[in-house]
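User: Can you predict the 3D structure for this chain?
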Amino acid sequence: VAAGALPYLGFGVAWVISAATAGQVVASRAWGESSAQFLFLQAIMYWGLKVLIYSILVLVALLALLMCVAYVFALVAGSTSAFKKSASGAFTRESVADMFRLPRTAVLGYVADVAFFLLMVAGLLVAMLSPHVEGSISQGEMVASVIIDVALFGMHATACFVIIPALVLSVWRGGQADRKVPSQFC
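Assistant: Here is the predicted structure, written as structure tokens:
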């Protein structure tokens, strides 16, 4: 049960990070970067990043531990060659392809994210090419700031409302299909 909930925890944390970052863009425009709202959203984003990184590290450690325990069991049973066959046979070309197959909605969300990323690059180019005015912000830098904020908001809003929900739904449907298939090990 806990292993089945782990992907959803990761998606939830990624959603919170994206929502907090999109909210940061709005809060910085509305109240400034020293406002309580902006600092609160920044703290949520950093907390989410820490949880996500620690979760990934724990998952990798658990997978390594599981492989070591399985190898020791195979060693005690005296069939390490059977272990190697079953371990390598678990990853077929089709199973790996299924792991990386994305739903169409998520792919369209990634395409939109690429467009927003290119918009952000354009904003950075405008900022770099605008003449610097001593003691104030030039009009080109202000325009670039707005372009970059729109791009950041668009990227994270797309992640929140298109990409992450599509991936969660895809994982959930895959889990439902796996429950209907009888297990080989029972």
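The radius of gyration is 23 Å. DSSP finds six helices and no strands in the chain.
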